[in-house]
Amino acid sequence: MAEIIKPKSISGFPEWLPSEKILEEGMLGIIRETFEQFGFVPLETSAVERNEVLTSKGGNEKEIYTLARLAGTPEDDAKDYSLHFDLTVPLARYVAQHYGHLIFPFRRYQIQKVWRGERPQDGRFREFYQCDIDIIGEEKLSLLADAEVPSIIYQVFRKLEIGDFLIRINNRKLLSGFLLFYQVPVEVHNDVLRAIDKIEKIGREKVEKELWDELKLSSELIADLLDLISLTGSKEEILQTLESKDYGEGFALGVSELKEVVGNLENLGVPSDYYRIDMSVARGLDYYTGTVYETILKDHRGIGSICSGGRFDNLAGNFTKKKLPGVGISIGWTRLFSRLLAAGIVQPGKATRSHILITTMDRSYLQEYLKLATRLRELGLNVELYSESKAFKKQMQYASRKGFRYVLIAGDQEFRDEKVKIKNMESGEESGWNISELESKVSQMLSSQG
Amino acid sequence: MAEIIKPKSISGFPEWLPSEKILEEGMLGIIRETFEQFGFVPLETSAVERNEVLTSKGGNEKEIYTLARLAGTPEDDAKDYSLHFDLTVPLARYVAQHYGHLIFPFRRYQIQKVWRGERPQDGRFREFYQCDIDIIGEEKLSLLADAEVPSIIYQVFRKLEIGDFLIRINNRKLLSGFLLFYQVPVEVHNDVLRAIDKIEKIGREKVEKELWDELKLSSELIADLLDLISLTGSKEEILQTLESKDYGEGFALGVSELKEVVGNLENLGVPSDYYRIDMSVARGLDYYTGTVYETILKDHRGIGSICSGGRFDNLAGNFTKKKLPGVGISIGWTRLFSRLLAAGIVQPGKATRSHILITTMDRSYLQEYLKLATRLRELGLNVELYSESKAFKKQMQYASRKGFRYVLIAGDQEFRDEKVKIKNMESGEESGWNISELESKVSQMLSSQG
Fold first, then answer.
1. How many CB pairs lie under 8 A apart between chains A and B?
2. ipTM here
3. Is A103 on the interface with B (CB under 8 A)?
4. Which of B4, B141, B317 sits opposite A321 (nearest CB)?
5. Average pLDDT along chain B
6. Contact indicator for A435, A420 with CB cutoff of 8 Å
7. Which residues sit opposite B171 in a β-bridge?
8. Does B385 contact A319 at a Cβ distance shorter than 8 Å?
9. pLDDT grade, residue B450 (50/70/90)?
10. Per-residue confidence at B194, pLDDT binned at 50, 70, 90?
């Protein structure tokens, strides 16, 4: 006999138990449905991209997993491909490649695994799901798209029921306009944005110090900037304050875009306590050029942003000369899900997706059990048939461990009476069903389950 | 400006256009639902396994894609992991690893991509989906599980509506019993099975020649074997013939198992013209030990088996000392789907999953369009709002290209009358809806769509 290889997990590559996976599937299903409610279509790109594609936007090569054959072949091309590390670069490549076959504005959602060779730490995964949506325009894309995004975020997290959340909205034009007004060179803008992005984590004073010591900004600029990003109040108050400032054209354009986006949210069904204008949201990436979003769980701010994104001027400049502006968001799903599990905000429940287990206490009636299973499936139930020849008690233990809500019990007496017993495992209640009335009983059962 | 990288496909890594992906998602959804109807739960394993796990069953190392960092780091462990090439080895590892947390019989389905570094040829992919189900027992697993499998295959392909199909069923014990009876050494059994597996492709004579020339079997054995695998008739006739043969104990056990499995199919709702006992089904793998299955499309036999599998004595012998027998099947999905597309058996349709497009002909009513979109979504519709400021004609072209069934049209006149126009794009019919009666109109629309 071959030696036993002890099976073990690979650090950073998470796997779930069945009850956890069932929970995850349910939640991903809600995300998918919500994306579809807003007109997004599913897209899937291959797990690998050419290396030149992945590194075109300066992906971190140390974190990119490239391929190789386990046993080499001379004509091996595997090394030219690598696993994608996000879904945005693949989208850009896909849209440029299939441009002529796509209809714009192109609204796609993409829920796929991505891979990053990071040092695995708490909550840092090497393999994880991202749930992305993007709306890609041709040459132009209306700000209406920017307004739709928070309404999608709102619906997703409302339906996921993981607690109170807040969508924080800003516009990058406003911050870069401000910096230009103060004649801060463009090359430094990202350093400034990165610094202020940390304000919630490290506090105002440390950001102030960084801007002064390292970026050598003037004290007047720093004071004005920190006042700006610390603005609080209702959206009307903040907008009024912003409109009163004279920080030049870029800033004013940012304010007017922000006003337009926020002004549409009420009619898109987003209640006002679910979003806020927040000048401190800068997003570390130089990728975004207009509206930016972050989303936090109010009672679990430590998790950080659970859904972020923004507007970009040009999606696929590396792959096509067409100008393709867009707006989108990404949910770093696996990280979020693992945190929700760890914090007990969501709990794995049943280890089955069946409505009912048919127990098989008397194997001489096997054909009857099979018929019942078939019949109940035809009536729309998910039915598991207990296949093993085990004591009835064992079968009931199985039902209870897996979390079946209903169990069908029938033996000699029941079949002679053309009846079955249905036990509700939650209430303990048992009821007798005539086999002839299965149809009406099942529709009752299905409608009572919602 | 950076140089443009021309985006192109990677050979063997298929991608679909939105309308094709929508079709694929719909079909995968049917498969998933059917698996769940039979009590299977979703499982997902990481895309990579340790190399020692993947090679434990003798996977072809030239076809295994292992990982490496694009830019190396000293402490790199990526080379110890590789992308899985099927879902069975990962299942075996998973079940052994999480044994204590699983409830047996463990019924899982797994729909995931797998990767094989094959030479890409027509219909051979390097990245493709497999749809697998397996029922794993602890120590024992009843033959009832073997009978359930064809009923699942039947339901899946009936619902997919891709034409008439036939499930071919055999039992490996029967063939190996026969060979033992003729004192063919066990080491040669697989070569014999592989030879007869080709009978449909290369014909009886060539198989006869191979058995004679290469495997040096006796002419009596060859004649008996070929008669056996060419048996035709109803299942009753075939079983009767088989029961009349005296080829020893193993053979007789195979016959009795086959009889038991087939005997349950009627009550599991499988019509008799959808399955057949077929002694030529041997399955090339030495993995199977009892019942084996293949499924063919009657009008497209060239596609080969679209769903195959069987019974195995011990799933995870390389990873645990526990004996875990099982039975399962696998659909090589991407290959099947691409063949179905190429043959025109399935056709991509719409490029949207929305019920309705809200056109925005008069931007001064933007807030009203937003309210309508929000309202219709609350009523359960998938709604796309046309976000761009384009001519009405362009908007209607967009609706028609994407395949929207309904378009909502409203301008100054309509809003003053508190009405909207709904155009059915298929019939061309237009009807006026009062905004106050949206609710009842939408439920009518939803119920008429089935």
1. 301
2. 0.95
3. yes
4. B4
5. 94
6. yes
7. B291
8. no
9. very low
10. confident
Sheet holding B430-434, edge to edge: B383-385, B356-358, B406-409, B419-424, B430-434
A66 to B62: CB separation less than 8 angstroms, yes or no? no
Q: With an 8 Å Cβ cutoff, is A363 touching chain B?
A: no
pLDDT in tens, B429-446: 999 999 999 999 999 888
For residue A270, give both structure tokens: 């987003």
CB contact under 8 Å between A62 and B69, yes or no, is yes
Q: For residue A365, what are its two tokens?
A: 């009636």
Q: How far apart are CA B413 and CA B436, in angstroms?
A: 16
Which of B113, B267, B357 shows the shortest C-beta gap to A370?
Answer: B267
To the nearest whole angstrom, how far is the Cα of B145 from the nearest Cα of chain A? 6
- Could you read off the pLDDT of A393-440 as tens digits, one per residue? 999 999 999 999 999 999 999 999 999 999 999 999 999 999 999 999
pLDDT at B1 over 70: no
Contact flag B46-A10 (C-beta cutoff 8 Å): yes
Q: Name the nearest CA neighbour of B352 among B376, B318, B386, B382.
A: B382
Question: What is the pLDDT at residue B210?
Answer: 92
Between A87-101, A277-291, B103-117, B135-149, the lowest mean confidence (pLDDT) is in: A277-291
Nearest chain A residue to B56 by CA distance is A5
Are residues A2 and B68, on separate chains, in Cβ contact within 8 Å? no
Interface mutation target, options B8, B46, B80, chain A, most CBs of A under 10 Å? B46
Residue with tokens 């896909």: A94
pTM of the model: 0.96
How far lies A351's CA from each of A9, A66, A356, A402, B101, in Å? Answer: 21, 36, 13, 5, 11
- Which residue blocks in B98-246 are alpha helix, DSSP H? 143-160, 172-181, 186-197, 199-202, 204-209, 219-229, 235-244
Residue B22 pLDDT: 98
Residue A353: name the closest of A329, A331, A384 by CA: A384
C-alpha angle B313-B317-B320 in degrees, rounded to nearest 5: 130
Kindly tell me if the per-residue pLDDT of A58 is higher than 80: no
Asked whether residue A1 carries a pLDDT value surpassing 60, the answer given is no
| CB-based contact A319 B7, cutoff 8 Å | yes
Judge contact between A46 and B13, C-beta under 8 A: yes
Distance from CA of A70 to the nearest CA of B (A): 5
Question: What's chain A's Rg over C-alpha atoms?
Answer: 28
CA dist A100 to A95, B13, B19, Å? 9, 20, 14
Judge if the upstream peptide bond of residue B105 is cis by omega within 30 degrees of 0: yes
CB contact A158 to B (< 8 Å): no
Tens of pLDDT, residue by residue over A265-274, are: 999 999 999 9
Q: Which of B302, B286, B309 is nearest to B110 (CA)?
A: B309
Cβ <8 Å between B7 and A56: no
Q: Locate tokens 């077929």: which residue?
A: B278
Are B382 and A37 a contacting pair, CB within 8 Å?
yes
Report A:286-345 residues touching B (Cβ under 8 A): 317-321
- Do residue A5 and residue B56 have CB atoms under 8 angstroms apart? yes
The pLDDT of residue B72 is above 90: no
